[in-house]
Amino acid sequence: MARHRGIVRWLGGACAIALVGSGCGGGDVPGEAGAAASNTAVEEEDEWEENTIPVIEWVHLEPSSPAPGGSVTAQVRVNDPDGDDIEYGYAWRINGRPVRSSGDRITLGNALKGDPISVTVTASDGWDESEAYTARAVVGNTPPVLQSVTFDPLGTIHRGQRVTARPIAIDQDGDVLQYEYRWWVNDRELSSESDMLDTSRLKRGDEVRIEVVASDGYSESNPLRSAPIKVENSPPKIVSTPANAGDASVYLYQVQAEDPDGDRRLRYRLEQGPPGMTIDPISGALSWAPAESATGTHNVEVAVDDLQGGVGSQRFTVVISEEEAAAEAAPPAAPSEG
Q1: Using one digit for the tens of pLDDT, what is the confidence trace for 4-13?
Q2: CA atoms within 13 A on the CB side of 273
Q3: What's CA 96's distance to the chain center, in Å?
Q4: How many CB atoms lie within 10 A of CB 179?
Q5: 55-138 — its CATH code?
Q6: What is the dotted CATH code of the domain comprising 145-232?
């Protein structure tokens, strides 16, 4: 029920306040009191005005979807035609449990994503209290945070080598994360959206970068771009298979090599081998005429250099039996007489 506010007005007039033993408009007023009453006409009028109860028009919670561990503030709009000073009362709840806070702002503390938040607000003008107004919100999602993105393999990459992006991200809500990938080669964006990049079409000196965005299904992280890595020189590879010694007097082996970068000025050399074994540095033709005493197993290592800092090698053994050595050492048979 609305209360009433008393207002006293003092108005000048011919009628004085009635005192004990006196009347208004006639009769004698004895003593000084009567003289004062006759000289000063004062009328006391009591007026009672009905107070207007304040009305809460709306309550907004900001932010409308607060993050776990953040804070939320109640914004209130009240209509009070009397212009009285308003005092507010706040009753907060998280997950239905009361929160010890009487102010317009709370910290969410251990609240998790999806937890309901409510605040019930009342407004008082000192005379009457408004009807309660309840506003609600839900603890929102925390976007994932990308901490780093690296490449596998680490350090350097070579043409033809498969490169894989390795992002590291955290999600405060514990959501399963998915990633989006964008690759660049020499500032040219590729069409690949995979976490792996095929470098078979790249060339020595190309620079590779990747940009990653993490998503928890609700929000996305800020994009994170890797530092560039350069496609380094790839060493040549010997692809031929060593020949068996056999029973020939000279051991021959044509070394063949391929270079992933397409280098053609390959140079061959003999890193290890028995005395007398040689290799042509340009053609890669290896030859050896074993002596009679060269029976046994001989370790051989050949290498190929692309003259760009890349070297490939191959190791194998050549076995010379005693029969083969004797056959190689025996003089040729004399021609028969006809």
Answers
A1: 554 433 344 4
A2: 20
A3: 33
A4: 17
A5: 2.60.40.10
A6: 2.60.40.10
